[in-house]
Every structure is written in C-alpha cells, then in structure tokens.
Design brief:
Keywords: Membrane, Transmembrane, Transmembrane helix
Oligomer: single chain
Radius of gyration: 49 Å
Pfam families: Sec66 (PF09802)
Strand content: under 5%
Shape: elongated
Largest sheet: none
Number of strands: 0
Number of helices: 6
Helix content: over 70%
Low-confidence stretches: 214-238
Structural class: mainly alpha
InterPro entries: Sec66
Order of helices and strands: HHHHHH
C-alpha cells in the first residue's frame, strides 16, 4: 500500500518553496516599481506637449469656432522641437553616464532615471509621429526634420543675442584702445619732425660743479710743451 503521507511531504515542501519564491518576486517587483516611481524625473515638465494636448482637447462652447488646424500643427511642431533638444541631451549624456557607472562614480538610481527618460522619449517620438500623420499623410516622416531646422535657427538666434549683448562693451574697449594707439603714433610723428642739427640744451651747471672744475684746472692743468719757451740761438757772423 502506498504511503500517501510520506509522498505528500516533498510535494508540500516544494509547493511552499515555489509559493514563497513567487510572493518574494512579486513583492520585489512592486517595491522596485514604487521606488522607480518615486525617483525624480530626468527632464522637467514638457510644456510644449502640455500646451498641444490642452489645445487638442478643448471643447469649444456653442457658437464659438473650433481651434484651427494651423494652430494645432504649429503647437505640434513646437512639441517636436522640444523633443529634438531632449534627444540631443540624451545622446550627449549616455556615454559619459555609462563610463561613470562602470567606475562606480554614480549610483543605480541615476541610471534608472536615465533609462526611464529614454523610454519616455521613445514613446514621445512615436506619439508625435502618429499625431503628425493624423493631420497630413506622411508628415510624421518629415516633422522632425523641420523641428531640427527650427532648433538650429533658435540656437543661432541665441548666439547672436549673446554677441549683441557683449558688443557694446567690446566697442568701448576698442574705442579706448584706438585712442591709445593714435596717441602713441602722434608722439612718434612729433619726434621724427624734429630737425637733425638741433641739439637739446644741456642742463645748466650748478655752482658746486663750477667750483670742482676750477680746482681740477689749477691742480692739474695742461703741462707746457718742452722747448716752447726757450729762445732759439741765432747764428753769429763769421
């Protein structure tokens, strides 16, 4: 006769073990999901997306016109432009973040935030393409190209604004420098115009210098030339 009690013990143990693992796995995933949900987002609020969705879901009151498609298209294009900026930030940060993660310089929380931002931007791009194709066929294939051009133009305008902000200070510095160069050049011209034979008057001698020169003359004046004071003998008549 089969002892069912003895056979049921291993099956009961196995069932308890599998149930415990299932409960632990479920609790772990819930805890991880809750922890990921509490992490701060990588990007700030997507304002152009919120504006587009608000315009899209506005229900006009009776007697008021509907939001024109041109305004909705412009809002969607502005939303795509913001997505271009975020894609550039993601690409620039990914490689550096991976290196820091391998070195242990950053924690897993930061990497989870980055991965969640990547997923969000992928979903955002798909949503924008679908919305663009809803307005016009195949517009989803070219909307990001137009958005990229708009982003580049905005960057150029920002650079020009920065240059214009510093133009006044640079202009003042150049005017001052030009005046200094002109002053130095005029001084050189004045020196070149002086006649070559003109001798700059010497500094007048003081009384002490005159007395010193007189003492030197009396003490060691020029010696008399030998033979100069002797009278040459004349030849007598023979």
């Amino acid at each position: 006769m089969v002892d069912w009690v003895t056979l049921s013990i291993p099956f009961a143990y196995l069932g308890i073990l599998v149930g415990s693992l299932a409960v632990f796995s479920s609790l772990y995933r819930k805890n991880k999901a809750a922890k990921a949900a509490n992490l701060a987002p990588w990007f700030s609020a997507h304002l152009p997306r919120d504006i587009y969705l608000s315009l899209l879901h506005i229900d006009p009151e009776p007697g008021q016109p509907k939001i024109p498609d041109s305004i909705l298209k412009a809002a969607l294009l502005r939303r795509a432009t913001e997505d271009i900026h975020r894609i550039v930030q993601i690409r620039n940060a990914k490689q550096a973040l991976q290196v820091l993660l391998q070195r242990g310089s950053v924690g897993d929380d930061l990497w989870q935030r980055f991965q969640r931002a990547e997923k969000e931007i992928e979903e955002e791009l798909r949503d924008v393409v679908q919305e663009a194709n809803a307005f016009a066929p195949n517009w989803g294939q070219t909307i990001f190209q137009s958005a990229s051009e708009m982003a580049q133009n905005a960057h150029i305008r920002e650079s020009l604004s920065e240059l214009q902000a510093t133009a006044q200070s640079e202009k003042e510095w150049w005017e001052k420098r030009k005046a200094e160069i002109q002053s130095e050049f005029m001084k050189e011209l004045d020196e070149e115009k002086k006649p070559a034979g003109v001798v700059t008057p010497a500094k007048p001698m003081s009384k002490a210098d005159t007395d010193d020169d007189a003492v030197m003359v009396e003490a060691g004046g020029p010696a008399s030339t030998p033979g100069k004071g002797k009278k040459k003998p004349q030849k007598g008549k023979q």
